[in-house]
Amino acid sequence: MTFLPGDADWGVLALLIVAAFAAGWIDAVVGGGGLLQLPALLLVPGITPVQALATNKLASIFGTATSSATYYRLVRPSLRTALPMAAIALLGAFGGASVAAFLPAQVFKPIIVVALIAVALITLFKPALGAVTRLKHRGSRHVVIATVAGAGIGFYDGVLGPGTGTFLVISLVGLLGYDFLQASAKAKIVNFATNAGALLFFIPLGAVLWPLGLAMGLANVVGSLLGSRMAIARGTRFVRTLFLVVVGVLIVKLGFDVWNENLA
Q1: Is 48 domain-assigned?
Q2: Is the dihedral of CA 64, 227, 10, 97 positive or negative?
Q3: Residue 126: strand, helix, or coil
Q4: Range of 39's domain?
Q5: What span, in angstroms and rounded, lies between the C-alpha atoms of 20 and 36?
Q6: Using alpha carbons only, how large is the chain's radius of gyration in Å?
């Protein structure tokens, strides 16, 4: 088995490994690593969009597993919210991946850009948001809101992916009242489930490039270990700041894509 399809060379592999490491670091802190990893995969000559999505999920699941374990060991997030949200998100991601096989991502991008702008403005102009945990709902209502958010974001992750961790964090902060560090810890567990849900569809389809995905997965693990430890050491303010940076980059990248697609 070869690492790369088509005419890709070892220089491309090196670029992908660096992108996977950086994506693991960003995902571990605040989400949004797919912004680097998926576009890097799409640069590989001969790769199809579905192969890129599937291989991205394989690489990412190693990183989300690593950061989930690290956060759980050091932050001890409550699983009462995370596990039901993760279970529904897994199903949503499976459904989204089945749609991704035939529906172009261009359909979703304008909606995502508008949502990200709203997220950035709310976070920027509400500095107290996510500073401390003040739960907005209790009991079954809390879990229901979490699972509804998980279903929608899981579906998006199966279809496209970049920014999934970011959306998970802001839903846990804005809708449920967690601080940014606790939200990041729970988001990693849910993001692991969305990656697994998408892979449950992509693996039987034969879309995963296994050698490449495993190599990128190792780089993702290293980045995730460093990122999660830095986020825990630096705390909520650091996570919030990086969150705003990642959201801003996502807005620019996806907005540029929408602009180019409308001109084409």
Answers
A1: yes
A2: positive
A3: coil
A4: 10-263
A5: 8
A6: 17
